[in-house]
Every structure is written in C-alpha cells, then in structure tokens.
Design a protein that fits this description.
about 350 residues, nine-stranded mixed β-sheet, alpha/beta
C-alpha cells in the first residue's frame, strides 16, 4: 500500500498541472475514472470536502482517488457519502479510510435483504469503522457543508415528498411505464441515497444507481426536484435507469456519464439524453463500446481507446452489456473536472486534452 501511495503522489504532481487551483469562492467537482464505478469529489468554496463513493476494490481505484485528493489539496475527507453497498461504489472505502482521515459517514442504512452481491464482510468492517460518526440519511435531510445546500432526495427506497425550489407537476411522466424489476439480483441499487447539491444558482444531482421505478416514484406525478444544471447519469448510463420522466423533467444543461468501456452507455440512455430539452452537452468518462457512433464527440470524452480498437468496435461490435473479457485499465486515467460559481456559471474540463467549455447562467 505504501508503494501505491508513493506512486499516487508522483501521479498527482502531473495531474495537478492539468487541474489548476480553483480561485476562492469556487465549488470544484472531480469525476474520477473508476472504470464504470463511481467516485466523485466535491471541494466546497472554503475547502471543505465531500467524497461520494469509492469505486472498486484494489490498488487501481484507490490510487486514482488518492491522486485526486492530493491534487485537489484535500488532506482529510470531511464527509463520505455512500450511495449503496455494491463493490463498484464501496470497493476502496476501507483502504482509503486507513490512509485518509474521514470525519463523517453517510449512507442509506441496512442494505436490501434480497441483494445477492452486497458483501457481509464489508458491512461488518464498515459498521465498526463508522461507529459514532455515521448518519443514516432520510429524504429531506440536509448535509451541513459551508456555502452549499445539500438535500437528500432518495434513500432506502423512500423519496422526497415535498417540492424543492422549482418543483411542480411533471408532464414528462405521460407514457413512461414502470419496468419489471422483480428479476434484478442487485436490488440495493434501488435503495441508493441520492442528493441535490446547490451552490448559489448552480444545481447538480447524484442519485447513485437508483433504478427506473425509483426514478418514477421520485418524479411522478410531481417533479419534486425542479431543474438542475448538471446531471450525473443514474446507474452509469445503464438501461435500468435514466427514464425520460427524470431526465427530461430535470432539464440539465450538461450530463456527465460515469460509464466504462463496456458498462453503461446503453443506446436507449443516449436516446433519452439526446431528446432531453435544453441539454447542451454530454461528457463521458469513457468512449462506450455499447454506443458506437452515438458517443459524444471525442473532445468531451475523458478516456478514449486507441484508433485501431475504436475502428474494430465500430466494424465488429462486441455483445452489448458487460459481456466479454474485461478491458485493460486505461493508463493514465483522466477525469472530468467542473468549476462552479455562485452566479450559476460553471466550466467543465476534460483533463485528457485540456478542452474546456463554460456555461453561463440560464
């Protein structure tokens, strides 16, 4: 582990060159590449930190998270929010907490009893680690973070029942039907603890892996959320999530997809995004094998395969979904950074190529 930390510190020096220090009064968001998992770092205007999920187990994602914390100047995690207990969201949590102080833990409580992939060993260790510092969030709860308004909107298959600013009737519920989720062997996705975060006029949402039917419970017949500027795609862009009732009602200007090469990026999800009213751009952590020509332009994608691999995928696409041999990890791994201001202005940067785009208040 010490060798991993040394490597991370070296990599962080290079990453810091791509991620210029935010000016005072900025909310910085780092969408870390965990190859189809999730780990997102928020650094508030006073330097207070919120880390949402910790990617997969093993040195790869642990190293990438430590690298990002170092480059962002974060020496402790003030708030660690776990959306749910699947390995691609909690994999590096225990290792990370041994190396970086964690002040508070937040989660949805007991995992879904029918979930077959939640690790009992992890839960036991997590209970011990978080004892006395843990908050089990309920819809409507707020997280106190200086300069930011953070409200839980979903947790443990319960949903916000009062409107946030801008909420109201949702015309986009018409014609959107529930899906049969009875065969899902991973129902803790639907328990995901999700939140809306506001910094002045800037608003973003993270619902973890909340599934289609949970989205409908949250958004129909009333849109409890209102609109957002930036939407992190639910469930990595898998077809189990991302309903029009959610995405179209939120009216995001920007969507960020935390997909992997073969995980997420489903064609139906791209279709819903492309049809979303007011969406200006989609940014992706990976070029998706599942989407082919529907991927965003390369400037908006943090990690892209070599030209020969892309050509092969386009001419002989692999089976959709997660099948096939696991692809090699991208090295180096690039992330997507967002710098938001209180007036609603925000800039998104692809650290692979330095491409940035600024979005003015609407």
């Amino acid at each position: 582990m010490r060798a991993v930390l040394v490597t991370c510190l070296c990599l962080a020096a290079g990453l810091a060159g791509l991620m210029a220090q935010a000016r005072p009064g900025t909310l910085s968001i780092y969408y870390i590449d965990t190859e189809g998992g999730q780990s997102t770092l928020f650094v508030g205007p006073t330097g207070e930190s919120l880390l949402v999920d910790t990617g997969n187990a093993g040195d790869r994602d642990f190293g990438r998270i430590v690298e990002t914390l170092t480059a962002a100047g974060v020496t402790r995690i003030d708030h660690l929010w776990t959306t749910h207990y699947h390995g691609d969201h909690v994999g590096a949590l225990l290792a990370l907490a041994k190396q970086v102080p964690v002040m508070r833990f937040y989660d949805h409580g007991t995992p879904h009893a029918g979930d077959r992939i939640v690790s009992a060993a992890f839960l036991s260790s997590y209970d011990e680690l978080s004892r006395g510092k843990r908050t089990i969030v309920k819809p409507g709860d707020t997280l106190r973070m200086t300069g930011l308004d953070i409200t839980a909107v979903a947790s443990a298959n319960r949903f916000l029942r009062s409107n946030l600013p801008g909420g109201g009737q949702n015309a986009f519920c018409a014609g959107v039907k529930p899906k049969d989720e009875s065969a899902y062997f991973d129902p803790d996705n639907g328990e995901s603890a999700g939140f809306v975060l506001a910094y002045g006029r800037f608003r973003t949402i993270d619902l973890g892996d909340l599934t289609w039917n949970g989205e409908l419970d949250l958004m129909c017949p009333a849109n409890r959320i209102g609109t957002v500027d930036l939407y992190l795609t639910s469930h990595h862009g898998l077809e189990k999530s991302g309903s029009p009732a959610l995405v179209h009602a939120l009216r995001p200007r920007v969507a960020v997809m935390n997909n992997g090469t073969r995980k997420g990026g489903a064609p139906d999800v791209f279709r819903v995004l492309h049809e979303a009213p007011g969406l200006e751009d989609l940014w992706q952590l990976h070029w998706s094998y599942n989407a082919g020509l529907d991927n965003a332009p390369a400037s908006f994608i943090a990690n892209v395969d070599d030209a020969a691999t892309v050509a092969n995928v386009l001419t002989a696409p692999p089976p959709s979904g997660r099948g096939g041999a696991p692809p090699a990890a991208h090295t180096p791994a690039y992330l997507i950074k967002v710098a938001a201001q209180q007036d609603g202005t925000f800039t998104v940067t692809n650290t692979r190529n330095g491409f940035s785009k600024t979005y003015r208040p609407r």
